[in-house]
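In the laboratory, one determines a bound structure by crystallizing the protein with its ligand and collecting diffraction data. In a computational setting the workflow is compressed into a single prediction: the sequence and the ligand go in, and a structural description comes out. We illustrate the idea with zinc ion.
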Amino acid sequence: MERVEVTSVTHSQGVRMLFSLMTPNESSFATVREVPTYVNQATPYFIGLILLEIVLGWLKADGPHIKINDFITSLSAGMMSRLPQLVIRSLELSAYIYVWNNFRLLELPWDSAWTWWLAFLGVDMGYYWFHRFAHELNFLWAAHQVHHSSEYYNLSTALRQSVTQQFSSWVFYLPLALMVPPSVFAVHVQFNLLYQFWIHTELVKNLGPLEWILNTPSHHRVHHGRNPYCIDKNYAGILIIWDRMFGTFTPESDKVVYGLTHPISTFEIWTVEFLYYPYLWQRFWEAEGISNKLSIIFKGPGWTPGKPRLGDIADIPQLTGEEKPHDPAWSPAMQAYVLIQFMLLIDVYNNLLMDQMILSELSVLLLTAYVLLSLTSLGFLIDQRANAAELEMLRCVLIVALQRFGYIKPLVPLLAFLIEVFVLISAVYWSLQFVNQRTNGMKKQN
Ligand SMILES: [Zn+2]
Ligand SMILES: [Zn+2]
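The predicted complex, in C-alpha cell form:
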C-alpha cells in the first residue's frame, strides 16, 4: 500500500491558523499532497476556544448563551458535513485540479509570496460570491440555511455546516484555477473556512479600525440576524471590503435576533440538514406555469409571484423583541448522558479524521457508519423522539462490539474498561425503556 504522509501543524500554527495569521513562508507547498489537512487538525483548537468562550461567559453577566441541545446539534452538523470527504475526494479540489490541468492560462510560481497573497484575495472574493448566491438562489439556500438555523450565536454556531453545500461552492473558485497552482488554493480554501470560526461570538463587541477591513464578530452577527435590517447583508469571509464594494454591507445597530425568519424548531440532525429540499420540491410543484416554477428555484427564498427577485422585506414575520429560542425542557441527567456520549463520539470522530490515511477502507466505512448512526441516535434523544430508546440501545451494543474488535481505541486501557461498563449499563437502561414503551403501547391498544 502506498504510504501517505500527513503533515501535522504545530501548536503555534494550530492557534494562528484560526485567525488567518499564517505566513506565506510556512504555508507554501509544491504539491497538493504536501498541504496539511488544516481543517481536520483544527478540532482540538475549536474545542479549546469553545471552552474559553464558555468560561468567559460564566465570568460575564451577559455572557454567551449556550444550550446543550443547540450546541450538540451545531457540532453534529459540522461532523456530518466532513464525512463525505472520507469517502470521496473534496469536489472543490478535484474540480480545481481538473481545470488547472486542462485549461490554465498562466503558471504562477507556487513559492512566491505574490501568488500566496493573490490566492488569499481570490479565494476570499470567490467565497463572497458563493455566499451571496447561497442566499440569493433558493436551491443553494436549501443547503446554506443549515448554517443559519441556530437561534443562538456562539462559537459552536460556526460549526453548524451543511453537508450539501460542498457540492456547489467549488464553481466559484474555478477562475483562480486558470493561474494559481492547486497546492496554493488548497491552503487558502482551508484558511478561509477556519477564519470564520472565531467571528461567531457575542463576547467581542467592536474592534475599532479593524472593522473597516476585516469581517468581525459584529459584522457577522448582522449576517446571522433575522431582523429586517440584517436580511441579505454581510456575506464576507475574511475581508469585509467585498460587502462594502458590492453594496451588501450594513453595520450592527439594533439588537440582533438570531436564526431563520421561520425557525425550524428541531434538533434532529437529518431534519436540520435536509428539511428544505422537500419544501423546495413542494413549492416547485405547487407553482403555476414554468416561469413561476423556475423562479422558485432560481430566485431568492423569500420570492413569491409578483414580488422582486429577493422577495419583499415587509413579508418576513415581525419581531416583538420577546422571541425565545426553541428549548423544550429535558432532564439534567439526560443532558449529562447525551453530553458524555457526544464527547466519546468526538474522540472516535477525531481519530477517524486523523488516521483516515492509515486505516483500511473497511475501518473507514465502518467508523463513518458508526458516527452517522451516533449522530442520528443522539439527535433523536435531544429531539425527544418516541423511537429514540431502541436506536440508542442498538448503538450501545455496537460501541461495545467496535471496542472489542479494536475499531475504537481509547487512550488508556482503564478508559476502555470504564467506557465499556458505562455503555453496557446504558444499553440495559435503554432496553428497559424500550420494553416499557412497548408494554405501555400494548396496554393503550387494548
Ligand atoms: Zn450565510
Ligand atoms: Zn456564520
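Residues 147, 200, 220, 224 surround zinc ion (ligand 2) (CB under 6 Å). Keep in mind that any predicted model is a hypothesis to be tested, not a measurement.
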